[in-house]
Request: fold
Amino acid sequence: MKYRLLGPTGLYVSEICLGTMTFGNQGFWSVMGGLGQADVNQIVKTAFDQGVNFIDTANVYSFGESESLLGQAIKDTGIPRDQLIVATKSTGPMNETPNGRGQSRHHIFNEVNASLKRLQLDHIDLYQLHGFDPLTPLEESLGALHDLVRMGKIRYIGLCNMSAWHIMKALAISREKNYSEVISTQSYYTIAGRDVEREIFPLLHDQKLGLLVWSPLAGGFLSGKFKNNSPLPANSRRNDFDFPPIQRERAYACIDAMEPIAQNHGVSVARVALAWLLSKQEVTSVIIGAKRIEQLNDNLLASELILSPEEISRLNEVSALPVEYPGWMYEMQGKYRSTPPVK
Reply:
């Protein structure tokens, strides 16, 4: 396992992060995995033993059960707390009361305290806003998070699923008010869905932020089970929850390109898809979820798979984003300054 610095911090996290959406069996979340305590303990211990020191969860996963199962697993397996970086999130609905969701100071404080109790921890390493709240001013949310950092309940702050301008606005507010700053964004990124490269990537470079990748296999579509012109596999969760949305023609083209590369290395298509992501310098950590130990082990081995420059070039080509404005103008005008003048 390799480790990368998390944004503008001195904190090293494993380049593969264990996701916990498969933990728990509450409501519609059960289609993600429905794992109970015994299976969770095994997955957490296996990941840690193979070098994973970074675990990502959220209050809304199985409505708190995922956090509870994770907290108990850390206790049951005896993993040293100081060797784990635990991340969680809030924003989504936890109940049907008027303030049971969102990013108000009221909700954030309530959910941090509830997460700490479920996780059986005295602090959360990375606390993330799980999306965009159109009603709560960012000043209120960031002020609440800053106070929680000062109280020692959380150590770092991250955002999820926000646009580049929104992330930059959060940074500007924090700098103006001397709040603790956002250090990372958690975004959807996969060889079959590269939209994050348009605006988020330039922001990451400019502001030195970390990128945590969710759904790197496009909701299982790049697992190797999906074939062009074939029905969806009967055991695929996409039969019940077709998410995240993908452009299937482009996704199948990516699969067709990855299959010979996978055969050449004697690995799964999923491992190739993960290795392609890990080849990107912008990526800090790729979040993987697993229902089975075999699946977990295969995904973890992506950290050891090094694709050749030719293979990466081929995959970049087949998965390239359609050119759009102002990207093509930036590229054209950038050439004017990319080469030093010659007299």
The radius of gyration is 20 Å. Residues 3-338 form a domain with the TIM Barrel fold (CATH 3.20.20.100).
